[in-house]
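#struct-help
A.M.: can someone run this one for me? Single chain, 758 residues.
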Amino acid sequence: MGRMMKMRENVIKWTRLFLLFLIVHVYMVANTGFAERVKETPPNVSDRSITIDFDNVDINLFIKFISELTGRNFIVDPAVQGSVTIISPTRISEQDAYRVFESVLEVHGYTTVPTGEVTKIVPRATARTQNVDTMGFGDSGAQPSDRVVTRLVPLNHNRPAEMQQILQPLVSQSSVLVPHTPSGMLIITETESNIKRLLEIINALDVKASRQELILVPIKHANVTNVSAILKELYGQTSQLPQANGDVQTDRKVVIVPYERTNTLVIMADKDDYATLEELIAELDQPPAQGEGNIHVYYLQNATAKELAKVLNELPREEQSTEPVDNRTAISADVSILADQETNALVITAPREDYVILEKVIEKLDIPRKMIYLEALIMEIDADKTFDVGVQWITSGGYESDTGVVFGGFSGSDGFSSLNNVTDSDTPALPLGFSLGVLKEGIEIGGVSFPSIAAILRAYKTDSDVNIISTPQILTTDNKKAEISVGENIPYVTSQNTTSSQQDYTQYEYRDIATKLSITPHISQGDSLRLEIETEVTKLKSLPDNITPTTFKRTANTTVIVGDSETVVIGGIIGQDSTRTEWKVPLLGDIPVLGWLFKTNTTTTNSTNMFIFITPRIIKNPSEMARVTEEKEIQFEQNSGATIKKDTDPGGNKKHAALLSDAGFEHLMDDRLQEAKHYFQEALTLDPSNPYALINLGVVYEKEENYPQAIAYFQQVIDSGTLEIAQRPEGYQADDLRLVEIARQNIVHLRSIGVAPP
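D.P.: on it. Structure tokens below:
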């Protein structure tokens, strides 16, 4: 009986196997398209490529196909069920086909677990309990697949439990994230491709934790706003502070806020940055030098304190600036600037940062201002006098240009319209209209050339037809008004009364009858001058004594542009002077009514033409002022016959020579060689050993290509500098020895270009 039962079980077993085989066979016949879709490359091709294109194929048949394709042995878990669809119009390699196989399994919730010679295909939920591969942190495949592996990830800075909480939402429910705190590692069981993505996130998060803290740093001496601006300029909002080991930690945020009320810095930074910041703040927060504070006194050398204080007080103000000093465009609102006229100084109350800005502005404004020596001549000419004013275009000054400048004219009845129009007649007529012109150094009047206003004055001082009204000369500074008034006070009757006692009462007012000249010069960058001229000439008319005085006034106001040392002339200001004369027989001419038979009254009218000559001369330095003084001394001696006592002090000569040398150097820089040579030669006349005049005169001769003369002056500088101290010329300074090297270099240069003997 038992034997019969055993035989029956065997029959049932074989019957089931046969039915299973029959079902599989029938199913494969029904899906004949499956075999047709798999196309292999010919056997002679080394790298086979296939096209996979399945439509709703049972997953077990797909596993069998991959097994036959790759030669791998699979053990399929009974839970693996379902159908797959793959659309792949392009051909892929066998290796890629296996990756596609793993991806298909992963999509359907299954995975592969290699075990020796076979590979298990199990649900992912149970794969983590299977014998999956375990990889260390440094292990990485050639290309991540979708197979499930276990990865051990060591953490350097973060705690494993914290990292697990961050990554848990990023993995599937079947994946495993296990923190191991003792070793500081995170254990991940997941597909290789997903593990790669997780590692990228871990590398970005596993960095040194920020240990930022808030500190307050009181600033004792400096301005907290300025210190904050400097720190922000250095580090911005992201610091790159050097660490103790020499490395640089970047992308570390540093927040710096100035608290002005308590002059304190509020800093949010990492602990490791505090040491560097504190050292830098200590260097910036230094007490002011001895004698420095918020009150400063600046002694002016050239400008006027009152005027400069007015300018500085107009500078822009602001409540508080966070800009560095070099970028500031305004000063603080609480800055105070006062002028002390007694000492010509500015008293400035300001923080050190604002004072630095003001000091730079003051230095640019407190510069020596050029002076202008104004020489004028106001003269009247009889209208019947043959008189002509022209221009001497070519003078001893050696002008390169032969053109004059005439700024305007108002032609009279004779059609005279410009002062540079010298007539050819022997007796040119006086211009009747108002004329204005600019002359150069040479002035021509009536065909006679005069080198200066002084020469005109000497020529006409004895001419009865020429009345020299005034010859004012004055020295002024640039942009400052110069005024000259020469005349007298004349009493004018303002009222007359007769009292009840028959006494006459007369009230007088004194008025100026004078010649007034007002000139405001403005020097441009090219040393041309704009002159604002105002002139007024007031004269008394000649009338009998019993008639109230009457005045005759002539004025001229204009603005002209003239070059340095050129002459501007205002001419053709016509005036009439009436003279009344009475002739009578003594006693008989005083008889009322009948006296008219014994007296005669005549009135004579005389027309005059007034000319005003003005010559401005720019004085740039004391040496030019000394030269003007010498010229005026010579003119005084020529006009008066007296002799001015000269300075016989040798020290004075040396100082004067130094001034002349400075003036010559300025002309040399402007490439005015003749003027420069004149100054250097005059300096050597007073002080033959002046090394600056010697070497600069050599440069002048070098520019003129007079090389032997240039070398001679250079050699003289060398010879003076190589003497023993006791044998050197008096006044030769130790600092002048540097000129010896310059002179040697100049001679070497001349030899290098072949113009000096070796």
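A.M.: thanks! The chain has 18 helices and 35 strands.
D.P.: also worth noting: The first helix runs from residue 2 to 30.
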